[in-house]
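Record copied across here:
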Amino acid sequence: MESAADRDERIMRIVERARHQPVGDREAFVRVACETDDGLYQEVAETLDWEARMGDFLKRPLTALTIVSRPFEPGTVVEGRFEIVRVIGEGGMGVVYEAIDRKRNQRIAIKSAKPGFQRLLTPELEGALKVRHPNICLVNQIHTTKTENGDVDFLAMEFLQGETLSTRLARTGKLAPPEALEIARGLCAGLSAAHRSGIVHGDFKSNNIILCRRGDETIQPVITDFGLASGANQASGEYGGTPAYMAPELWRGEKASKASDIYALGVILYEMVTGRLPLESNSLEDRLVQPVPPSKFVKGMDPRWDRVTQECLNESAAARPRDAQQIIAVLEKRPLPKAPFVVIGVLLLAVLMPPIRERVIDLFLPAHVRLAILPFQGSTDATVVSEGALQDVSDRLQHMPSARRTLVVISPSDELKASVQTPEQASKVLHATHALQTSVRREGDEYVAQASVIDLTTLTHLGDFSGRYSQATIGTFPAALAGTVSLALRLHSPAVAESLSPDATPPYDKGLYLLRNDRLTFEDAIGLFKEAARLDPRSPLPLAALVEAQIVKCELAKEHNCLDEARQALRQAKSLNPDSPRVLLADGALSQADGQDQKALDSYSRVLELEPRNVDAFLRIANAYDRFEMPDKAVDAYKKAIELDPAYFEAREELGLFYYYRGRYPEAAEEFHKAIDTAPGIVDAHTSLGGVLCDLGRYEEAEQALQESLNIRETAAALNDLGAIRVYQRRDAEAVDFYNRAIKIDPSNYLYLLNLGDSNWRLGRHRDAQTAYRKAMELSVSELNENPRLGRTRAFVAYFAARLGDRRRAEDEIDQALLFSPGDNKIKRRAVLTYEALHERERSLAVLRTTTPEMLRELNSQPDLADLREDPRFQELVATTEGGGK
């Protein structure tokens, strides 16, 4: 039954919407909104009549009648930290500024409510802070500052470079289907992630979407203003809502929901492909009528756009799609649903049961494909490329096994006889279902090729390809085209066998060995892969390996231009064979480095379609589950990789690291032991085992494992862990020597500097400690600026800030770190140390209550937590753990 408070709130929502109806239409609107509730109608009508007599000043806060100025001006430094650079956007209630966060030395955006409109920042926004996704604007914190006009709330946000979708549509009109699909993919992924976190946007519209560009120039749509309107979905833009995007239930006075967000998404999709809104009039009556399908306005429109927009814009909230990922699955017509958890879960089952795999993939793809290979488009002055190349593609595809589907290839000679030149002719004359369209042109000594696989029913591009070739590599063009078709149609076998010339094999194999056995040898591996690529320019294998090596260099050497080199190598590899499992793995790795986790999962799922027993694909999928905070499924994927290749040490080692970072030390130690049994010469496994044994308090065994590691090769990690053992043994002077040796090998690792600072602090060498902390702070902030979503890095920044006396930043950063990675026990460990440094005992205990028994035991030996160990509440936690109560 509706409470009095709920009824009052519903009345005011209807009143607000009625205010913005033409006077002559208000009574009809109210009657529709109140449906058959005469009492509700009477109360709304009386309220509207009273407000009409009082005047429209009731529509604004009193302060807004006289104060409409911006809260900050360029040049102002807010809270001693945020330097205002310029205004980049302004509305009736708020202002958006570009600013510099001096403490982080980072370019940010600040969104501030104007005086009198503090309700802009609603309580729901606190929940929105928890949503972390590449397609959602990162909001760091809510702040309040005092101004001459009173307190002002503002948000510190990720700075986004780009134009709004609304601006783009106003500038160019409707979007081409491939671009609309790319944007829709990001919007669905972001909205789905928010809804999984229980967050509703409440004012989703094209003006709240920023079109950014990734490093590879693809579009990254980013949704902004989550939570800013969820408490005030009014009928006017001035009050936070936007009529054209509002679902019927919002017009009736109901609260915003996931279903109303899906309705708004439908409006946006409609807007993108037609250049117009689905409903021109802002009235409830219009929203009770299904809008005209997009295909009525755009000739040749893919019917899938009609389907998804009609479903999203259904008058009934219950009839709309439950999840935004369902929408993109329909639009893309992928072999599996796009939601990453569904994709990988089905693939795991599919690998175990191949018959299921065949049925699942065939369910999403046409059973019969008639592919027309069209003649080259335009003039082709590349004399070495003739129609014979297209016949080569035809022959390759005709000899591919296509599993349960029938693939019929209409050869170029048949098209020549029928005078077929275009996709439309291929469909009409040859009854083709799909077409391969290509072009090649000469640019100096190079050949530039482009190709597209087109669904002739909808004229949708299922796959696009581009590549540059030299005289030495142009012969690989037919194989690359065949790979493009295989990838676009999700054929069940690779179109091109992966091979490498005898001359290129030795440097390639040696590079793989070095990179697999010791990541610090990345420079040697890079040189070897480049040599292999020179010796066999027709194979994508060395180039794919080069991509992975450049990513490792970026991670370890902090040289971020390496990613540009990785992108260049990936483009070359794709020009040779875009459907190579090795290339797809490299593509996934680079996508993850760029923060495109969904794109990475697409690549890994394709690898499993081609090679269901590919261990690397399972390991990377496990890592994705870890990032998505699904530990049980991550463990399942790790164990599947181990089952497929029990002798592969890396699967054991990665599972051990997974357990270690989640505070499951005994399980981690067991996996590291098994990795060493499999490959005794692996340095990292010995070092990792030493580290986890140290945390378990088994110092003698830990030192033995670390000495074995040093006997293989001296590494900074092993020296650092030996220093940690000395710390636990209360021998800080010896620990300092080990830490200095580690820093000499790897001066860019802030963890070693942290440990050096801590030991010097305990030894009373406070000046030396501060020097180490400041250098560590500089390194960690630099890393955080490159990727603000790194929870572990943010936790270290918090700790350094606490040690350097910056209390406010320490609290801000550690809170954010815990939000980023709630399941990471190493972040919880750092949080406890940070809170103790800040003398925040209650917050320390709150974190400790959520950690593992092993973590509690390790912290019970921490020399910096002597005061905590004396606290009866901590002793009770440890005792409960030791007694088996936890």
About this structure: DSSP finds 40 helices and 14 strands in the chain. Residues 757 and 855 are 22 Å apart (CA to CA). The domain at 160-332 is CATH 1.10.510.10 (Transferase(Phosphotransferase); domain 1). The first helix runs from residue 4 to 19.
